[in-house]
Amino acid sequence: MINILTIVLLPLFLPGLISRVKAIMVGRKGQSLFQQYFHFFKLLRKDEVISTSASFITRAAPAMALAGTFVAALFVPIGGTTALFSFKGDFILILYLLAMTKGVMVFAALDAGSSFEGMGASREISFTAFLEPAFVLIFASLIYSSGFSSLSSILGDYNLGSTDLLIFVVGIFMVFALYLMLLVESCRVPFDDPATHLELTMIHEVMVLDYSGFSLALIHYSSALKMLIYSSLIAQIIIPGTWKHPFIAFLLITLGIAVITGIVESLMARLRMNRNLELVLVPVSISVLALAALIAKSIGAW
Amino acid sequence: MIQVLVLIFGITLLFASVTNMLNTLIRILAAQGFILFLITIFKSTQLNWLSFAFIALETLVFKAILIPWFLHDTIRKNDMRREVEAHVSNFFSLALMSLIFLGSFALASFSGQHSGKLFPLEFGIAFATILKGMFMIIANKKLITHLIGYLFMENGIFMLSISVGGHLPQLISLGISLDLILTVLIAVVFLSRIKTTFLDKEINPLEEQSSC
Amino acid sequence: MLRIMLFALPFILIALSFLIKKTRGLDWLVFAHAIINLGFALPLYLNLGKDGYIDKMGLFAFLITAVIYLFVALYTLGSENQRKLRANRLYSIFLMLFISAMNAAFMAQDLSLIWIFVETTTIFSALLISIENNQKSIAAAWKYLFICSVGIALAFVGILLFVLAQPTDATLKFELVNAATLSPFWMKLSFVFILIGFGTKIGLAPMHFWLPDAYSAAPTPISALLSGALMNAALLPLLRMEKIMQLARLGHIAQDMYLIMGFLSVFVAAVFMMKTTDFKRILAFSSIENKGLIMIAFGLGGSAIGAGYMHILGHSLIKAALFLVGGNILSLYDSKDSCQISGLFSKNRNTAWLWLIGIVLILGFPPSPIFISKFFIFASLLGKRYLIPFFTLLILFAFIAYRMISLSMGLCTGESRAKKNLNILRYLSPALLLLIAAVMGIVGI
User: Fold this and answer.
1) Which neighbouring-strand residues pair with B86?
2) What's the gap in Å between the CA of A274 and the closest CA on chain B?
3) Neighbours of A82 (CB within 10 A)
4) For B158-177, what is each residue's pLDDT tens digit?
5) What is the DSSP letter of B205?
6) Chain C partners within 8 Å of B114 (Cβ)
7) Distance between CA C445 and CA C442 in Å, rounded?
8) How far apart are CA B110 and CA B120, in angstroms?
């Protein structure tokens, strides 16, 4: 029950928190914390304008994206509660659902016929292409230490509360890699600037240029939901299994991640595009190292 | 604790693949020296007191302090451009680094079945460091980056030698330290001579590679 | 006691060198060191095989080095020395230290000691190459130092893996290694690294890139010593490791690798020699080719091993002589470019004859020892039915011989303006070296 409530209610809070933190860092008062909710409802009431050169993909994409992300979120254990669905090997399904979301959005971006959106789509794909291996490697590390089963149980077994220092450090590596992936997927600085509306520098924003009204609301919601999924993965790794109220800890961690993201956004600028392409490989390298460390530990002589 | 330090050592290798600045590479070298010093301290149960003190001192003073200082001084004196000029992009370097990690760990795990006294994590990362040093030598244009790559190799060899075990203690460490001291000393002598000889020409020799 | 004397000697002489005020005096000091060095050969021979002293391979290398050193010192006495006192003192000190480091590398029985001494020779020889402070020699010395240091570091990795290969009671002394208990996996890996590492020092392809630059940019006596003596210092550990591999029943792997690197070296030498005009570089490539041949000889095994030692002997002596004669040519013409040199016969007859005889001997005509070794190598190749390598080697030799002889003809014939005479010692040294080589060749038959 709490799962569904969190998935429905929490995501839109996060972008609002991030912009509030950014505003405070700069010295402004900033928008209200619930501004994104107001924006969402405003968009729901508006009419849509759809380009005449668009096909059914443009109409169907936001709904499919939301569906994919939502179903994926149903598999993720949020804050220590059991996930709504879980079966053995469900993380592969999650992976594909998220990929389907991304793919559908990219198709829709190409569908509009504007080369500008095609450019954004290609950049987006090139970033994602290197996050998938990182995701798989992180899951592989988790499986290696806990055995092949559903996402809930492998996340439940592996956490930072372990007394083994190596597991602890490897966990920190995984958290760091997941955080980098969060930054990339939710289009945050240093990978993408959500506030920019300059042609040359947009990546994710540019894909949704053609949307308005109801579709735009769905898209905002699904990208915020993606951020929530990553945050809950991070939180699940951090929270030891023995804590009494994991949900509170989960909330704190999620909000903390949003705050940190806001701070990072205020302190850094978006990096040059070719540097970004290089840096997007970092989660993969870290995950390789983490997996190799775990494997080496289990066959090692110490 | 040792494994954690070794893992952090591995992360510094990833750093070295990503960076574009020479100063960062020198700082990474200093950090690696410090990590090696800590690892030596934690391994002191396997070595006797005197050799441990010598090795720890040598590691800390030479690898973490003196050599980065030498390099920094050389860069400043020779007025070089601060960028690492690589033949290949950072992306390729990082990808190759991941592959090197995979390869070294595969080697370590494959050979872990053959010898009982192997520490696979240290062996794998030491091997990866050596390969990374060689890659830096091959893939970069400046002579100073070649020297830094060689120092990476030295760090990797040091880690390999302290992970192989304390069976042949002093001589190995003596050899490493001798090698390191003399090589860098001579290199610094050379570099200052290069500067005085080339000063009348406008080229900066440390940025050019001698032709075959 | 003997070893203490042998190694204290250079330090005594170094102390003496600070007392000497004339440049010439330093050259006489080096000559004295060379004579005493050769004198040590006899007591070493008497103590052959005893623990802590030298073994047969080491003594062989020691003798070659001592002989070459003697004649190099003699040659230096005969040539006019244009260095200033301080530079010459540095030169003499480093030269004596270089020789003693090589002697130590020959005498050491422990792999780590050999490694340290080979590293030391790298450092001293790099300093010697760069003793003339011009751009070319510093660049060549840097390349040499760097590539060989990387190689030595890899050799050290090989040594570490060798320690890993011994499951119990790891030792680096060659006699104490228990070959039956070595693990094959680690031995193979270790041998690869040691081969690459020490092979860099020897100058095998594909690690040979420092060699042409270093040999051609170094002063003449140093080139002679580098090509004649330094190779043995790095070759001995390889041969000793190969013996251990044989004992561990992995000998065929070592031999295969020797063969591959040997052929690659001969091929590279033949190809690069075609385009080179600097005659010292051509001598350097010929060195690479000969080292490749030595590797092939040891890689074939059996009767070719004796041929290998014979080839080492012949190549060291003859190549040293050729470099000394090359020094003559250099001072006659002040240029290393063979396009600008001609008319050697009319300029200085002795040098021309020496050069021609040297080239002929190194290509393998009798009575050179290289003739014997090449003969046995080819016989071995045929005997093992390696027909394609046999023919390839023949063709490559033909190319090399063509290039060297055409070079020599280009140097020697033609007209030249003035006659010039050189000190007799500059003829005597290479002549004696060639004579010794020829005598060895005849004795070998």
Assistant:
1) B140
2) 9
3) 12
4) 888 777 755 555 556 666 77
5) G
6) 183, 185-186
7) 5
8) 9
